[in-house]
Amino acid sequence: MPSLFLSHLAKRILVFDGAMGTSIHQKDLDLQSDYCGCENCTDILVKTRPDVIQEIHESFLAVGADCVETDSFGSNKLVLAEFGLTPETYSLNKMSAEVARAACDRHSTRDKPRFVIGSMGPGTRLITLGNTTWSEMHDSYREQARGLIDGGADAFIIETCQDLLQIKCAINAVLDALAEKGKTTEDIPIMVSVTIETTGTMLLGTEIAAAAHALAQYPILSLGLNCATGPTEMSDHVKWLGRSWGSPTLSAGRAGGRYVSVLPNAGLPILVEGRTEYPLTPQPFAEAMERFMVRDGVRIVGGCCGTTPEHIRVLAEAAERAGRGFGKSAGPGAATHIEEFSAPPAPAVTSLYSPQDYRQDLSILIIGERMNASGSRAFKKLLEGEDWDGIVSLAREQVRHDGAHVLDVNVDYAGRDNARDMAEVVRRVVRQVNIPLMLDSTQVKTIEAGLMHAPGKCIINSANFEDGEHKFDEICGLAKRYGAALVIGSIDEDKEASMARTADRKLAIARRAFERATRVHGLAPADLLFDPLVLPVSTGMESDRRSALETIEGVRRISESLPECQTTVGLSNVSFGLKPMARIVLNSVFLHELREAGLTSAILHFSKILPRNKIADDQWNAALDLIHDRRSAELPDPLGRFISLFKDTDAAATVKKTAAALTVEERLRRHIIDGEKEGLKETIGAALEKYRPLDIINDHLLDGMKTVGELFGSGQMQLPFVLQSAEVMKMAVAQLEPLMERVEGQSKGKLVLATVKGDVHDIGKNLVDIILSNNGFTVYNIGIKQPLSEIVKAWKEHRADAIGLSGLLVKSVNVMEENLKELNAMGLAPPVILGGAALTRHYCESHLRETYEGECFYGKDAFDGLRTMDLIMTGQTEVLASEIAERQGKRTRAEEAINRTRLEKLASAQRDDAGASLVAGSSQTGRSGPARVRSEVSTTVGVPAAPFLGSRVVTDIDLEQIYPFINPVALFRGQWQVRKGALSDAEYEALLEDTFIPTFEALKRRCKDEGILRPAVVYGYFECNSDGDDLIVWEPRSAGGQAGTPREIERFRFPRQPDKRRLCISDFFRPAESGERDIIGLSCVTMGPQASEAAKTLFNNNDYTNYLYLHGLGVETAEALAEFWHKRMRQELGIAGDDSPRIKELFTQHYRGSRYSFGYPACPNMADQEKLFRLLDPGRIGCVLTENHQIDPEQSTSAIIVHHPEAKYFNV
To answer: Among 142, 773, 940, 998, which is least packed by CB within 10 angstroms?
Structure first.
């Protein structure tokens, strides 16, 4: 029977309290008598001042809070040890729950009981960072949980979490404490709340999706967010949780489903005059939270740092309104506006950082096999030498060059401490390589040692019934405890033949294991990977001849019988003992057959797998004969026949024709088809003796790419090999380009390519980019989650010939339709190519094509898109239209709609011209000038309340708050001039990852540690009004001005557009004649003179590279501070609700209002800096103006802040 807390949560939104810490620090408490000399140990107050803590609890309960969190955030053994209070862990937690219970009992009623939530913070040590161990943390949290249980907590909240290992450990500690008391999570549920920083990830870099997948198997009631930021910054993450956390993928079959909690700060904190201030006032805080409740179905809401009883009062009112839409029987995640077609996340494993789907779109899940002490001499040597850095490099190499999605780690090696080795390898790899791990060992102790150091969701390899159900259960228990997936081998207790050889036995063991793993241990079906066992067909023994065939059939039957589960194999076992080249061919053909049977993953060295077109026909067919045991009178020994083909061959012999025997034309094509880079330069050199560079590209290289497309379309070439071909094509073009005459129009056409808004999937889009760009087209790939405004902007900027839109989700199809309608409304009709997994050809060519007034085509894949672009650019779209008409059985009405719209627009334009009355040159020149011509910018937008009038100086700013706002593109490409040039995207990213990102990180640390960057801000708010093109700034009333008699202290004059919208910055403020004063913000930020001085020293020492780095970082950090402070000012004004939660989008004005710096087109007069300096006095932070009105130090910038929602950048 569920607890009272669970019963009420199922019926209504529950409101948690606000900031305990903020409330405590507002009290006048004595360090000695109240804190017992333990400075900042607020947890001890439940013992010394329970009256104060209960008063704080009641202050939130009195305004409508349903739940209060205990004053036990830091009351675990590891934290209390810092104050010498470890022995009091249990008693302090018990008292904290009792104090909260007393407060709740005073405010509880029958209809509205109040609940005590046991708060468990992250502590000061993290396992992943090596500050403590799993065992120490588990003991620490278990003692805390014991006290909270005995004190009467109704639920636990493990909050402000920064490390997945810390969360897993805490959950297990609470579960163990509950079990000791004979209780379960139905009696006292567990909630988890992570902290997502302004970087968009947890402190250690974990994405919200990775956290959700890693925690999905645990019996937790809710997953949510708290602390670090205000609600705006949490928006994307809350939206993802609202649509995903309660999905079947992540709910793990939990009865009653799962809930989402949101407890934000009152905005981004900052130190002002030694005190921490939070800018977000109660009303905008509650408005943002109400959107979460209505849009995302959030059922647990409250506040974190900076939230007061007034915040909670307004929030409780919002919760009451939002709750009416849920209905009394609404389940978790119920909301009024959650999209019905949101696709649930695919089942996945995770690294510390991000998830990796089990089912890949165009590949199997590739599990790298090269970190296996039993099978890799290189890894064994690294392990013997304890070359941990070398092991990390090997891990990286498998990701980059072998395309691995998961890494198998096997350290089983006689004579070594395998558990220690596993721990050492795992703890290093998890932080340095973004890839999930498969922990592979026959020893339970070794596997667990790895799991204790692996934050993400690992795969355990493996469990089986060889030693009976006891050992199987032990491994399943590890998977349950550490939230891991599990490989299950086809082995049982049969003493004569424990390894299943027939498909029948493989399936029987898989079914038995499935029942026990799911029913007894509660493991999710999707997290089970069945290995039907690959046995060699290379021994010549009669018992082995059908091994490959039985494995293929085993994969087929398991896939059909257990469709939710995964399948995997150790691929290379099939060819054990053969020559290297024979192994490569047999492994490649065997993998092809397994994939056809439904295989979802394999442990293999993928760079040693060949596509069909790289294997000679006789070798391919001989491998098939061997795999399928096709013995006959003509072929009595398939193995002997296969081996005979490799008697005198090496790797080069697999190609159908030696390079020496090929013509130069054939060699050009072969380089592209085979993705072969070696010898490319020489081949092109030979070709240049016969052909012009452009002819080589158009007639020979592109012909090779056409063949690649045909092979891909027919399923004979897998995606990784297509990309290899594209890389060779890019290399070839880069070699030929300098020799070509620069002629306008050499490109076959231009395409703007994007994944639609709200969709993060980009593999399909990027494949289109690669194929088209290497087939003569110019592609502007502007990325994922792109709104139509950015797509249209790119289309206009580049004068592109077409737009390509991609999206994987069903919802993305709806977005595509909305985009087409918006294009119609804009009067734009570029050809549009649509593609994606959820989009069908029929829907696109019927409904969407009829919806759009331009040409709309369906792109099945990259090569279909290539054909479509070819036909668009050669004026043959009627071919496509004819094909569509034949498929649809009717003619499209798009052309009629286009013509009708064009006629309407033409008529509209003629009417507009006839009614035009503006006279050029009539711009206003002052108060007494001619009749003023003003834009149509609204003058009725509400004026936000400024938090103060006048100016303030802020100097105590943590660089760690600013660094996330650095624009990496501006830094790397602009300041550091790291050009992509002829590098592929992968090469450029690798260059950044290997060289420049480490430089960036190291330089950030140095600047902080050595005080090179010292951020400071002077900013303020002033009353103002517009007067034509002028903006009048009034003296602050607190400084002597009286109501009704304002005194002008500054006047800015801004230029007005002579045509178009006739915009002027002054239009964004209330006119003087309105009688209502408006508000303008001003700011000036600096990184201080030390940055310039340090950079000058480097220059004088001829250290030009580091001079460039430091100078660029200083400039971009100043820009980051300006962006960060503008965000804070929007929060202070209460207009931050329109902020994008993604920092990257703030760089492109995805927020309300605008920040204009002098020198911008809208305010070009640099001399206006003098007026800003008179108003703010930036000399207080060390800034002065040069004769040319530049700010010194150079790493400084100033701005005027406009709150009007129509204010954006514009040219005059």
So the answer is: 940
Residues 6 or more apart from 319 whose CB is under 8 A from it?
13, 15, 289, 290, 293, 301
Reduced to 3 states, what is the DSSP secondary structure of residue 917? coil
* Single-letter amino acid code for the residue at 111: D
CB 479 within 8 A of CB 525: no
Yes or no: say if 114 and 61 are a contact pair by the CB < 8 Å rule: yes
DSSP 997: H
Lowest mean pLDDT of 274-288, 337-351, 385-399, 454-468, name the range.
Answer: 337-351
Please check the confidence at residue 249 and state whether its pLDDT lies above 80. no
Query: Is residue 852 within 8 Å of residue 871, measured between CB atoms?
Result: no
Tens-digit pLDDT profile for residues 877-924: 999 998 998 887 754 454 455 445 544 544 443 444 344 333 333 334
Q: Between the CA of residue 369 and those of 475, 535, 540, 592, what are the distances in Å?
A: 22, 17, 26, 18
Report yes or no: 724 and 675 within 8 Å, Cβ to Cβ.
yes
Q: Which residue has the tokens 């060295």?
A: 605
* Ramachandran area for residue 692 (φ above 0: left; ψ -120 to 50: alpha; else beta): beta
- HEC sequence for 808-821: CCHHHHHHHHHHHH
Which residues pair with residue 755 across a beta bridge?
Answer: 806
Helices (H), 245-376: 248-251, 282-296, 309-323
Lookup result for tokens 């089942």 = 347
User: 1125 and 1019 in contact (C-beta within 8 Å)?
Assistant: yes
Q: What distance in Å separates the CA atoms of residue 1207 and residue 1212, rounded to the nearest whole number?
A: 14
Contact status, residue 1203 vs residue 1085, Cβ threshold 8 Å: no
How much is the pTM? 0.73
Indicate the DSSP class of residue 1059: S
Q: Which residues pair with 573 in a beta bridge?
A: none
Distance CA 963, CA 376 (A): 42
CA distance 670 to 683: 10
Q: Cα 1131 from chain centroid? A: 25
pLDDT of residue 107: 97
For residue 1036, say if its preceding peptide bond is cis, omega within 30 degrees of 0.
Answer: no
DSSP 8-class letter at 981:
T
